[in-house]
Amino acid sequence: MNLPVIIKFVIDLLAVLLLALGIKGLSKVKSARDANRLAAFAMSLSVVGLLSYYLGTSGIAIQSWIWIIIGSIIGSLFGAILAKKVPMTSMPETVALFNGCGGMSSLLVALGVAIFPISNSVENLDFFKSLINEVSISVSIFVGAITFTGSIVAMAKLQGWLSTPGWTQSKVRHFVNIVFAVASLIAFFDLINGNTSSIWLLVIVSSLLGIGVTLPIGGADMPVVISLLNSYSGIAAAAAGFVVDSQLLIVAGAMVGAAGLILTQVMCKGMNRSLVSVLFGGSLSAQSTASSGSGEYTNITSCSVEECALTLEAANKVIIVPGYGLAVAQAQHTLREVTKKLEQNGIEVVYAIHPVAGRMPGHMNVLLAEADVPYEQLKEMDVVNPDFPATDVVLVLGANDVVNPQAKNDSSSPLYGMPVLDVQEARTVFVIKRGMSAGYSGIKNDLFDLPNTSMVFGDAKKVLNDLIGELKDLGVGEK
Amino acid sequence: MSFISLLWVLLLGSLLGLELIGKVPPTLHTPLMSGANAISGITMLAALTLIVKAEGNVPLLIIGSVSLGFALFNVVGGFFVTDRMLAMFSRKPSNKK
């Protein structure tokens, strides 16, 4: 072994170690931020390792440098700008977009190697002829394409650019996807047989497969899909590692792939959905329209902000249930002002965080942290559920399915079995909501019909602002 | 590296990934996903390899460069956005009175 090889070996080893430590650290609140930086450092280290290896062996042509610099600057610039500008509420779609681009990168690498075999390098000659190489190219293209189109569709659906087309909820979609899958398989074997032109067929059908699989999935299940696609992009990276013969790529890709799978599993548990039903079950709303005709509300109590303020003032213990609607209205800061007033009046305020509040597990925690809500006030579902009977007022802000008692009481409900917050146990429940529309699942919420539930209609931010005004008038929080 | 040893690398890497994410508080799911996502942009190394080995093949250089751009978009954006999220958690102790 000569020096450049040894140096690269040591750097790669170090990078893998740091990446592993980084992922490990990301799973603890205290160390998370440093761990993220550590992982970023490891990634830059790996680039230095690779470039110094080539500088020490074959050298890097000026032309290559130019293209490296162009690609790096454009990619990093756009990435940095998007990361700085994007609002915290759009986090799921942002992760989806980044993820899709990672998949695209693996796809392009494999495509490049497949179309332009690098012939003038001796070590590559038999390597490129080998079956293994064809297989890894195919896998990289297949997984990379699915990751890319799937992530883009997921992003578009979360952004509201794409709705769920009707045909995707019928059985037809399974047939269509099976056709795509079989076509991918045919292209795969054709490619291995040495027919290079079928690579384009593989690119096209696997892209279509990514679209076909993601399109029927409803908004509520999207985080699970993004997490799964995140895992795929790791697998695509590992496959690209086989293509260019890089252990570092394989280790890092495999780590991300495996970690992504675990995270997906955790999310599924939180929503009481199996991965199979997420992927092949279609969106929940499609099932519920078929299930029962109990879509009408019979006993809605509507109330004014003033009444809500009066009840809050008289309370001893208040639990806030924030949901995605709160985030959409960007009302987390206004909410914080309301709770500050209540706290100044000696009222105990706690936030009940459902595992899938917001759009992704942990998303709501991020949003509330942004509004400076103390960490100790955020209670997880299992901790807070026994507290509801002793609670005077529950404020439900833009949450819907996660407070639906149907999940406990109605075994025919598609939500049945999903863990929910038992808000109906509290003395009074105020639901702040724009209108009577259903949640992501598209299912009627029995909570709204209960006698101890009052609806306060309006945009979350506006209602909270009004609430601040009313509380002021009542002298709450004034010294 | 022989294919077999690369397979070992794949296997051990996967096991490591499974082991690393044992217990994660729900708070950290989103940042963790975002951070892991940034790491999956490690394909930038493959893109770099492609560019270096292209040796004057312009279409290949372009493909490599675009691929590098996509990967770095993922890496840089991913780490920055994760840092932004985590900054919100670490800010709290200083605000506590």
From TrEMBL, chain B:
Pfam families per the UniProt record, alphabetical: PNTB_4TM
UniProt GO molecular function: NADP binding; oxidoreductase activity; proton-translocating NAD(P)+ transhydrogenase activity
CC per GO annotation: plasma membrane
Protein EC: 7.1.1.1
Reaction equations catalysed: NAD(+) + NADPH + H(+)(in) = NADH + NADP(+) + H(+)(out)
Enzyme category, top tier: translocase
Domain NAD(P) transhydrogenase alpha subunit C-terminal intervals: 7-91
Keyword annotations of the record: Cell inner membrane, Cell membrane, Membrane, NAD, NADP, Oxidoreductase, Translocase, Transmembrane, Transmembrane helix
Membrane topology: Multi-pass membrane protein
Free-text function comment from the UniProt entry: The transhydrogenation between NADH and NADP is coupled to respiration and ATP hydrolysis and functions as a proton pump across the membrane.
Protein name: proton-translocating NAD(P)(+) transhydrogenase
Species of origin: Prochlorococcus marinus str. MIT 9116
